[in-house]
Amino acid sequence: MKRSQEHSLKIVKIHPLSIKALKSGHYHITTDRFSDKFPKNEKFLGVNETNNNLKAILLHDPSHKNIKARLWEKDCSDFNASVKSFTKDLYSRINFAIQKRMGMGLSASRDNFYIIFGEVDNLPGIRAQLLADKVLIQLYSNFWDYYEELLVNSIKKILDISYTDFKVKEIYIQKRVQHDKPLLKMCFPRQNNLKNEINFVIKEFGIKYLLKISSSLDFGIYSDMSAIREELIPFFKQSKTVLNLFAYTGSFSLNALFHGAKHVVSVDISKKYSDWLKENITLNSFNKNSHQLITDSVQKHIKTEEHFDLIICDPPSFSSDGKSTLNALGFYENHLITLLDLTNPGGHLVIFINTHKISWTKFEERINKIISNHKNKKYFKHVKRLYLHDDCPTIENFSEGNYLKGIIFKNTKE
Prior knowledge:
- The chain is of the alpha/beta class.
- The chain is built from eleven helices and 22 strands.
- It folds into three domains: 9-78; 86-202, RNA methyltransferase domain (HRMD) like (Transcription Regulator spoIIAA, 2-Layer Sandwich), CATH 3.30.750; 222-411, 3-Layer(aba) Sandwich (Rossmann fold).
- Helices cover 27% and strands 31% of the residues.
- Strand 4 and strand 5 form a beta hairpin.
- The radius of gyration is 23 Å and the shape is globular.
């Protein structure tokens, strides 16, 4: 593990567009002709743009492919004092983030939620999830290599103080820097790279999920969608037939079965995830006769003549099955009309897109344009938006954090 070095601060120039972005609420300095000149061996960088009234401290990450620095402090009055108090401020920010989630009462209904969600908690490049009695820290910046031990000790101490009914048993760190291979290691109670898969069960809104922590980026559930799954409970309760497309490990299918659906169809091309979904069905003792699992491409299956009360479609932002490639918006342009036709009168269609590169405006404009070409367009009503909230809120002018977007449509035809 790298040890913290003496703090230092070099003043750098940044791109005029970066100045504007930081002042408006953005956090990232990406690679450009200015960031290419940043001194390579400095952990902290200072920005002192007097003409633009910007005094900021950046966390330097020269080895990252795209993001060369992240905002730590804006409107800095004393560079030297702020850098010297960095570790104290880091602990304070972690404590504030965790206490905020404790105040939400999330643990009353689910074992999985974020205790740190990166930039929204003024902790750029750090996310951390509580998963039952375990913590998974996910690092998106190489800067934090210097502070791994401090991160682990701070999170454990704060959780031990905040939670009186249990103690954190294990803490893991997962490196999720884009160009690195996924790296996972146990940091508490002992230090070692994880060689074997760690399997355990969590519970969310009454449903059990098998999680598998390993060097893979996937461990079985997307906690950032937990609040959305709760928001969809009324729609699950009123739906007897449900189609779950790009099912992954089956969270939407499990919710449908839990709330009384008589016929649920799950479609995913991955055998790995299909087998995992089967394990979750067994874990919850659901009636297997009420569930049909199809391990095949979604594009092929939606040619079915079957209709459903509720269809949920959550395609990956980009994927390949070895024969063809898929992007989410392209999928909707080719297949949204079909999904509308498969939705029963009175039923609902829920669609998601998972990328910050497509704004809400662009997403809705493209979807509405597709629907405008449908022969029965007058019957499809836009019910509501679905977006990140609770433990994973978004912040204005930071598009990278506003990646998940969903829309519910209702077929109003009698």
